[in-house]
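Figure 6 in text form: structure in, sequence out.
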């Protein structure tokens, strides 16, 4: 059984869903440190002028090591209305925007207290659009206490995985020998994004999965499979 894991991201990019697709089981790393200026509370969409960042404001915490599961959304700012407006203005004329607009209009109409809940809701919703049906767990519910590579090995053991699928970035920090000692196979994600039709030229890669969905609709699942 192949297991992969990742921090929950906001409007995650295409490679994130490719990793889930290529796994049997996926774990949200919600019990690790929240990092600013990454993709846990922001992502990029396509505009006629290039790209635009959509950022969910979060409540500043006195704890610099706050865990992802504890991060609160700053609802003193009208961020949800801004994000919906940005999606509507930039994708309303895309071929498949209307197929998915109810879902996104609905989520931006809710009040989200925790960033984790918002991100997981979006990821699970997009999984359904892409016909991705995998076993999904929260790390915080697994009782894992180790860190770094040992944390991953413990998660694999807890869920009965025999293979861990890592992103290519894992080559820089994983202690590969520990997987072999634990009787686990370590694989690295092979992901090569195909160019798909975008509303504007030139093609810009590595955007939020929304760009693929709104431009390609149900074909998005096939494109993802072939990446």
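Output sequence:
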């Amino acid at each position: 059984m192949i297991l992969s894991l990742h921090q929950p991201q906001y409007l995650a990019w295409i490679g994130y869903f490719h990793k889930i697709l290529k796994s049997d089981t996926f774990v949200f790393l919600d019990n690790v440190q929240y990092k600013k200026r990454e993709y846990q509370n922001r992502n990029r969409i396509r505009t006629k002028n290039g790209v635009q960042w959509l950022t969910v404001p979060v409540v500043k915490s006195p704890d610099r090591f706050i865990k992802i599961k504890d991060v609160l959304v700053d609802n003193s700012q009208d961020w949800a209305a801004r994000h919906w407006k940005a999606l509507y203005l930039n994708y309303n004329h895309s071929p498949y925007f209307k197929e998915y607009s109810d879902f996104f209009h609905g989520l931006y109409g809710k009040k989200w207290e925790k960033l984790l809940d918002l991100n997981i809701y979006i990821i699970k919703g997009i999984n359904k659009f892409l016909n991705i049906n995998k076993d999904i767990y929260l790390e915080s519910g697994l009782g894992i206490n180790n860190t770094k590579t040992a944390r991953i090995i413990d998660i694999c053991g807890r869920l009965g995985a025999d293979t861990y699928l890592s992103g290519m970035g894992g080559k820089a920090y994983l202690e590969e020998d520990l997987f072999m000692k634990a009787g686990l196979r370590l694989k690295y994600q092979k992901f090569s994004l195909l160019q798909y039709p975008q509303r504007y030229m030139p093609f810009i890669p590595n955007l939020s999965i929304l760009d693929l969905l709104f431009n390609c609709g149900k074909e998005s699942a096939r494109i993802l499979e072939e990446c």
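Caption detail: The CA atoms of residues 113 and 199 lie 34 Å apart.
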